[in-house]
Amino acid sequence: MELRKINKNDAKSQWEYTTALPTDENGLSNPYNGVSYDDYIEKVLLTLISYEHPVNMASLIKTV
User: Fold this and answer.
1) In this structure, are residues 41 and 11 in contact, taking their beta carbons and an 8 Å threshold?
2) Domain residue limits, the chain
């Protein structure tokens, strides 16, 4: 097993893995289950890559 950052070069295998995960399992959710390859490339991949260097992080943090 090898741990890699999500990237465009491995998009096909990452799409296969990500979209095959169940929508909900043991309390974990996967909103990308069943997403088409085109949608994954155009939308999902960029979103997942952006999580590495989030912009406007303060707006994402909820105050209690």
Assistant:
1) yes
2) 11-60
| 25 three-state secondary structure | strand
- Please say whether the beta carbons of 51 and 17 come within 8 A: no
Whether 64 has a pLDDT exceeding 60, the answer reads no
pLDDT digits (tens, 9 = 90+) for 4-45: 888 899 999 999 999 999 999 888 899 999 999 999 999 999
In whole angstroms, how far apart are CA 7 and each of 14, 45, 50, 51, 58?
A: 8, 8, 11, 12, 25
In angstroms, the Cα distances linking 32 to 35, 47, 49, 58, 59 are 5, 11, 14, 25, 23
Kindly give, in sequence order, each residue whose CB lies less than 8 Å from that of residue 12, ignoring residues fewer than 6 positions away: 37
Q: How high is the pLDDT of residue 44?
A: 93
